[in-house]
Each structure stands twice: as C-alpha cells, then as structure tokens.
Write a structure and sequence with these properties.
By secondary structure, the protein is an alpha/beta fold. Helix 2 runs parallel beside helix 3, helix 6 crosses helix 8 and helix 7 packs across helix 8. The radius of gyration is 17 Å and the shape is elongated. It has 2 domains: about 130 residues, Response regulator (Rossmann fold, 3-Layer(aba) Sandwich); about 60 residues, Winged helix-like DNA-binding domain superfamily/Winged helix DNA-binding domain (Arc Repressor Mutant, subunit A), CATH 1.10.10. The chain has a 5-stranded parallel beta sheet with strand order 2-1-3-4-5, with helices on both faces. The termini are far apart. The chain is built from 9 helices and 5 strands, in the order βαβαβαβαβααααα.
C-alpha cells in the first residue's frame, strides 16, 4: 500500500510513517512538508491508499489542501492529523471532505483504528465529539436532502445499521455509506447521534 503524510514537521512525518508501517510492513510512505508538494505527489502517485494532512502548515493551508486533494482525486481518503482538539476544526475538516480526524495526542492504536475505519468506507471522529450536541450555529434545512437521503435518514433515526438500511432499501452497503456521508454534510454533523438529534430538532418527518 502507499500512503501520503503531509505535515511541516519532519519528525512527526517520520513518526506517522512508522505507525503506518505497522499497518502494512511493505507500505510506501510518501512525505510532503506543504500542500503544494502534497498535490504534486498525489498527481505522481494515483495509487495512494490514503493521505494524512495537518491543518496548520506553512504555505497552502490544510483545509485548502484537503479540498484540492478531494477535487483532483475524488477516491482518495483524507485523514486529518492535527494538534487542534477544537470541535469546530473537526466539523470544518469533515465539511472540506476529510474522512477522518485524529488529534496529534492520539496514540498509534488510535491512528491505526482510524485508518482501518476510513479504508472500510466509514468516517472516523475523535471520541470527544460524541459528547457534543449538534452545532446550533447554522440552521438545518431538510430541503438539502434528496428523497433517497431522507429515507436513509429516517432509518438511521430508527437505529438501523448501514447493512440493514441497504437490505431494507435494496441498495449496496457502500451506496448507503455514501448517502450517510452526504446526510452528515448537509446536516452539518459528524456522527449518527448528532444526525438523529439534528433531524428531530428540524422536525424532519419520520425522525
């Protein structure tokens, strides 16, 4: 497997690379000190399995780097590795297209668990986000959801798993995951509990 680590601190990049080689001893870990170099490496290596990106770097900002990576390489999962534990930074990163967010205080086991989850098509958020209520900074508009997304959301509200939703709606599980990700972005939340709470607060039928 091939990974990309983007951070302006060489020692941190080396540390993450060592952790990634615990995941795959034969892994190739490319390193970039800034967003511009990251984009160049991603263009040279279309077979990247995932990219780890810091939010605060010299040159191109981390959020801009995430947006550009996702725009140019839609299938590339991006995981944020940041010193910030601000919930708003987590939300901004996920809205920009990141599939995971790990604080730099996290240990190797957490980084590997996040990677496994993201490679499986899920979204990883740090545990402290589970204790937060949905963001009240912006109103939720159900009109931003498609009819199919509303059906998926209603089943989420009833506690069904992705696999169960796929069976009930006649969809593949990976298709359900795509709908769930879109629902999270529209409702401006980062996990299922927040999605349910936000849907109920907005009066979405069936929730």
């Amino acid at each position: 497997m091939k990974f990309l680590v983007v951070d302006d601190h060489p020692m941190l990049r080396d540390g993450v690379a060592a952790v990634l080689r615990q995941f795959d001893s034969d892994a190739t870990v490319l390193q970039a000190a800034d967003g511009e170099r990251a984009l160049a490496l991603a263009a040279e290596h279309p077979d990247l399995a995932a990219a780890w990106v810091d939010l605060r770097m010299a040159g191109m900002a981390g959020l801009d780097t995430i947006v550009q990576l996702r725009r140019r390489h839609a299938g590339l999962p991006v995981i944020v590795l940041s010193s910030s534990e601000d919930p708003d930074d987590v939300r901004r990163a996920l809205r920009a297209g990141a599939r995971g967010y790990c604080p730099k205080s996290a240990g190797p086991a957490t980084l590997l668990a996040a990677l496994r989850l993201v490679l499986a098509g899920e979204i990883y958020v740090p545990p402290f986000m589970a204790q937060l209520p949905p963001s009240a900074a912006e109103p939720v508009h159900a009109s931003g959801l498609t009819g199919r997304q509303l059906e998926v959301l209603q089943l989420l509200c009833r506690g069904h798993t992705n696999r169960e939703i796929g069976r009930l709606l006649g969809m593949q599980e990976k298709t359900v995951k795509g709908h769930v990700s879109a629902i999270f972005r529209t409702l401006r939340v980062v996990h299922r509990l927040q999605a349910v709470e936000a849907a109920r607060a907005a009066g979405i039928a069936g929730c």
